[in-house]
Design a protein that fits this description.
89 residues; mainly alpha; 4 helices; 48% helix; flat
């Protein structure tokens, strides 16, 4: 309905903006850990001995979809494309 009120009031928007500022200044965009930890090589080496490689099958499915799409020859904005998982019915 075009006359619906705004879903979030100003207080909720303020909380979400605060969360965004916190996450962007404290959380690493690569690993999701606090940057005071993950950007400290000595702390990371003291906490972890190594890393295993695992496969995220959702990520793999998305990569395969993007490969098929890019090979289709109709890609106009390669850095603006995304994928949507299709549930089985």
């Amino acid at each position: 309905m075009p006359d619906d009120p705004v879903e979030w009031d100003q207080g909720e928007r303020d909380w979400m903006m605060a969360l965004d500022i916190y996450e962007s200044s404290h959380k690493c965009p690569v690993c999701g850990m606090d940057i005071s930890f993950c950007h400290d090589e000595h702390a990371v080496n003291a906490a972890f001995s190594d890393a295993d490689v695992e496969t995220c099958f959702v990520g793999e499915m998305r990569e395969k979809a993007m490969t098929r799409f890019s090979e289709s020859g109709i890609v106009e904005a390669p850095n603006s494309q995304t994928t949507k998982l299709k549930p089985r019915l």
